[in-house]
Amino acid sequence: MELTPAQSQIVRNNHRFRVVNCGRQFGKTTVAVEEMIACAISKDNLVICYVAPTFQQARDIAWTMLVKRLDPVLIKANETRLELTVKTQFGGESRIMLRGWESVETLRGQKFNFIVIDEVAMMRNFWPGWQEVIRPTLTHTLGSV
Predict the structure, then answer these.
(1) Which of 44, 111, 120, 123 is buried deepest, with most CB atoms within 10 A?
(2) What is the pLDDT of residues 67-94, one digit of tens each?
Protein backbone atom coordinates (compact mmCIF):
# COMPACT_ATOMS: atom_id res chain seq x y z
CA MET A 1 0.00 0.00 0.00
CA GLU A 2 1.31 3.45 -0.91
CA LEU A 3 1.42 5.98 1.92
CA THR A 4 1.16 9.73 1.52
CA PRO A 5 4.26 11.82 2.33
CA ALA A 6 2.73 12.84 5.68
CA GLN A 7 1.90 9.21 6.55
CA SER A 8 5.40 8.14 5.55
CA GLN A 9 6.84 10.75 7.91
CA ILE A 10 4.94 9.13 10.79
CA VAL A 11 6.15 5.64 9.85
CA ARG A 12 9.79 6.77 9.54
CA ASN A 13 9.76 8.32 13.02
CA ASN A 14 11.64 5.90 15.28
CA HIS A 15 10.63 7.20 18.71
CA ARG A 16 9.36 4.55 21.08
CA PHE A 17 6.18 6.48 21.87
CA ARG A 18 4.54 8.53 19.11
CA VAL A 19 1.45 10.73 19.25
CA VAL A 20 -0.32 11.62 16.02
CA ASN A 21 -2.93 14.39 16.02
CA CYS A 22 -4.49 14.67 12.56
CA GLY A 23 -7.91 15.49 11.14
CA ARG A 24 -10.54 13.16 9.76
CA GLN A 25 -9.73 11.19 6.64
CA PHE A 26 -5.97 11.70 7.11
CA GLY A 27 -5.43 7.96 7.13
CA LYS A 28 -4.40 7.38 10.76
CA THR A 29 -5.99 3.93 10.79
CA THR A 30 -4.31 3.05 7.49
CA VAL A 31 -0.93 3.95 8.99
CA ALA A 32 -1.76 2.00 12.16
CA VAL A 33 -2.78 -1.11 10.20
CA GLU A 34 0.34 -0.98 8.04
CA GLU A 35 2.58 -0.62 11.09
CA MET A 36 0.84 -3.44 12.98
CA ILE A 37 1.27 -5.75 10.00
CA ALA A 38 4.91 -4.80 9.48
CA CYS A 39 5.61 -5.38 13.17
CA ALA A 40 3.73 -8.68 13.29
CA ILE A 41 5.51 -10.25 10.34
CA SER A 42 8.97 -8.93 11.26
CA LYS A 43 9.69 -11.42 14.07
CA ASP A 44 8.30 -14.59 15.59
CA ASN A 45 6.14 -14.55 18.72
CA LEU A 46 5.29 -10.84 18.81
CA VAL A 47 2.02 -9.63 20.31
CA ILE A 48 0.48 -6.48 18.88
CA CYS A 49 -2.60 -4.80 20.30
CA TYR A 50 -4.97 -2.24 18.76
CA VAL A 51 -7.11 -0.37 21.31
CA ALA A 52 -10.17 1.66 20.29
CA PRO A 53 -12.58 3.42 22.68
CA THR A 54 -14.92 0.39 22.57
CA PHE A 55 -14.65 -3.21 21.41
CA GLN A 56 -17.32 -2.52 18.78
CA GLN A 57 -15.33 0.44 17.46
CA ALA A 58 -12.23 -1.77 17.21
CA ARG A 59 -14.30 -4.13 15.06
CA ASP A 60 -15.79 -1.31 12.98
CA ILE A 61 -12.59 0.72 12.53
CA ALA A 62 -9.79 -1.78 12.04
CA TRP A 63 -10.92 -5.43 11.88
CA THR A 64 -11.98 -5.65 8.22
CA MET A 65 -8.99 -3.61 7.04
CA LEU A 66 -6.59 -5.88 8.95
CA VAL A 67 -8.18 -9.11 7.70
CA LYS A 68 -8.05 -7.94 4.07
CA ARG A 69 -4.45 -6.74 4.27
CA LEU A 70 -3.30 -9.87 6.12
CA ASP A 71 -4.85 -12.33 3.67
CA PRO A 72 -1.52 -13.62 2.29
CA VAL A 73 -0.05 -14.32 5.75
CA LEU A 74 -3.18 -14.96 7.82
CA ILE A 75 -3.14 -18.28 9.67
CA LYS A 76 -6.18 -17.91 11.90
CA ALA A 77 -8.83 -15.24 12.53
CA ASN A 78 -11.04 -15.37 15.62
CA GLU A 79 -13.76 -12.83 14.89
CA THR A 80 -15.46 -13.29 18.26
CA ARG A 81 -12.32 -12.33 20.21
CA LEU A 82 -10.94 -10.08 17.43
CA GLU A 83 -7.61 -11.91 17.36
CA LEU A 84 -5.45 -12.73 14.35
CA THR A 85 -2.54 -15.13 14.05
CA VAL A 86 -0.14 -14.36 11.20
CA LYS A 87 2.82 -16.06 9.59
CA THR A 88 6.10 -14.15 10.06
CA GLN A 89 8.83 -13.76 7.48
CA PHE A 90 10.79 -16.43 9.36
CA GLY A 91 8.01 -19.03 9.25
CA GLY A 92 6.87 -18.52 12.84
CA GLU A 93 3.75 -16.83 14.16
CA SER A 94 2.75 -13.55 15.78
CA ARG A 95 -0.59 -12.29 17.08
CA ILE A 96 -2.61 -9.13 16.57
CA MET A 97 -5.47 -8.50 18.97
CA LEU A 98 -8.08 -5.75 19.00
CA ARG A 99 -9.52 -4.47 22.26
CA GLY A 100 -11.78 -1.75 23.64
CA TRP A 101 -10.75 0.85 26.20
CA GLU A 102 -13.98 0.19 28.12
CA SER A 103 -12.34 -3.01 29.35
CA VAL A 104 -8.75 -1.81 29.52
CA GLU A 105 -8.34 -3.63 32.85
CA THR A 106 -8.34 -6.94 30.96
CA LEU A 107 -4.94 -5.96 29.52
CA ARG A 108 -3.38 -5.82 32.98
CA GLY A 109 -0.55 -8.34 33.32
CA GLN A 110 -0.13 -8.97 29.60
CA LYS A 111 2.99 -8.29 27.53
CA PHE A 112 2.92 -6.41 24.22
CA ASN A 113 5.56 -5.56 21.66
CA PHE A 114 3.55 -2.86 19.91
CA ILE A 115 0.31 -1.09 20.79
CA VAL A 116 -1.83 1.28 18.75
CA ILE A 117 -4.24 3.41 20.77
CA ASP A 118 -6.80 5.00 18.45
CA GLU A 119 -9.17 7.88 19.24
CA VAL A 120 -7.57 8.68 22.61
CA ALA A 121 -9.69 11.84 22.98
CA MET A 122 -12.76 9.61 23.35
CA MET A 123 -11.31 7.47 26.16
CA ARG A 124 -12.44 8.05 29.73
CA ASN A 125 -9.69 8.28 32.33
CA PHE A 126 -6.98 7.80 29.74
CA TRP A 127 -4.04 8.96 31.84
CA PRO A 128 -4.61 6.57 34.79
CA GLY A 129 -5.26 3.71 32.33
CA TRP A 130 -2.05 4.52 30.49
CA GLN A 131 0.07 4.68 33.65
CA GLU A 132 -1.45 1.76 35.54
CA VAL A 133 -2.39 -0.70 32.78
CA ILE A 134 -0.98 0.02 29.31
CA ARG A 135 2.52 1.30 30.08
CA PRO A 136 3.44 -1.69 32.28
CA THR A 137 2.48 -4.11 29.46
CA LEU A 138 5.42 -2.72 27.46
CA THR A 139 8.09 -2.91 30.15
CA HIS A 140 9.22 -6.51 29.70
CA THR A 141 9.37 -6.33 25.90
CA LEU A 142 10.54 -2.70 25.65
CA GLY A 143 7.54 -2.36 23.35
CA SER A 144 6.45 0.78 21.55
CA VAL A 145 3.22 2.67 21.03
Answers:
(1) 123
(2) 999 999 999 999 999 999 999 999 999 9
Give residue 109's Cα distance to chain centre: 17
CB 59 within 8 A of CB 82: yes
- Write phi, then psi, for 3 (nearest 5 degrees): -95, 155
52, with CB counted inside 10 A (0-12, 13-18, 19+), is buried
Q: C-alpha distances in angstroms, 111 versus 49, 102, 126? A: 10, 19, 19
**pLDDT for res 25:** 87
Instruction: Give SS3 for 136.
Output: helix
What is the b/e burial string over 14-47, where b = at least 16 CB atoms within 10 angstroms of the residue's CB? eeeeeebeeeeeebbbbbbbbbbbebbbeeeebb
How many other β-carbons are positioned within 10 Å of the β-carbon of residue 85?
17
Q: Are 62 and 44 in contact (CB under 8 A)?
A: no
Among 22-31, 51-60, 97-106, 115-124, which stretch is predicted with the lowest mean pLDDT?
22-31
Tell me the average pLDDT across 56-71: 95
For the cut 80, the answer to whether the pLDDT of residue 1 exceeds it is no
